[in-house]
Amino acid sequence: MAKTKELSKDTRNKIVDLHQAGKTESAIGKQLGLKKSTVGAIIRKWKTYKTTDNLPRSGAPRKISPRGVKMFTRTVSKNPRTTRGDLLNDLQRAGTKVTKPKISNTLRRQGLKSCSARRVPLLKPVHVQARLKFAREHLDDPEEDWENVIWSDETKIELLGKNSTRRVWRTKNAELHPKNTIPTVKHGGGNIMLWGCFSAKGPRRLIRVKERMNGAMYREILSENLLPSARALKMKRGWVFQHDNDPKHTARTTKEWLRKKHFKVLVWPSQSPDLNPIENLWRELKVRVAQQQPQNITALEEICMEEWTKIPATVCENLVKTYRKRLTSVIANKGYITKY
């Protein structure tokens, strides 16, 4: 049987008005072009409930009991990597047969959804403590101090990159909780490697590293690019150089070279890409490069160099101006990786 069209609220109210005016159900039906049974149903509903509005409908009973919902909500909260198949098997063993979409919908009503686990650096307790120490020590540093820092890093940009994913169940804004992330080690592959630096005044040198970088090559890059970048950026006296704790950066010979050149180096906590604003510039660069769709390594390098110079100085300025927020986020997140 075809489903009948629901009467509008105005029509239902008109039926009641005509009934109150003394008209019969047959007369009302003839006047409005409706069946007598339809008119009668509306009038009976009005007499019983004093309204013509649609009443709440109970719908089909839920297949998963409240106890079952609590059980697998607790399961995925404890282990976000639990799959729908795992939950399906648990429910079947308990005598409940449901589909995977039903499980997804039930978890979604509990504020949980299936998301790809974020890849973040592996943090050991010593890293967490070092990050907290850094954030607390520099929390009250004036904005001018961060404006006098040259930030640097290396990154690899892929020509055709593929990233594996893994899904987890999590609540909103919990994507960076350790249980919802996939720990990674820096530099997992790619096509070209770049070294770059910037300050609050804008991006500076960007260099392609064509061979496997070692300490000697790193010192050569700094020798040829760091001081010219500082001059171009018109850094104030006493400017500070930032780099992470990659073994090439912390090698005894590199430290000695930096000391002899009288470069002041920012003491840096390991495994802390979220504290380095250049990571945001790398992301910006990679988006710009992807939009250009380079077809070979030569084109990839050319586009990288071109797009790097196009990044507005205001972007760099804002990254440095809001640096205190990074520190407060690390403290609020108890030393674990934060959004950046």
Automatic annotation (TrEMBL):
Gene3D superfamilies noted in UniProt: Ribonuclease H-like superfamily/Ribonuclease H (3.30.420.10), Winged helix-like DNA-binding domain superfamily/Winged helix DNA-binding domain (1.10.10.10)
UniProt organism field: Oncorhynchus mykiss (Rainbow trout)
Top-level taxon of origin: Eukaryota
Stretches assigned to the Transposase Tc1-like domain: 73-140
GO molecular-function terms, A-Z: DNA binding
Tc1-like transposase DDE domain residues: 149-299
Gene Ontology biological process terms in this record: DNA integration; DNA transposition
Residue ranges crossing the lipid bilayer per the database entry: none
Protein known as: Transposase
Start and end residues of each Sleeping Beauty transposase HTH domain: 1-52
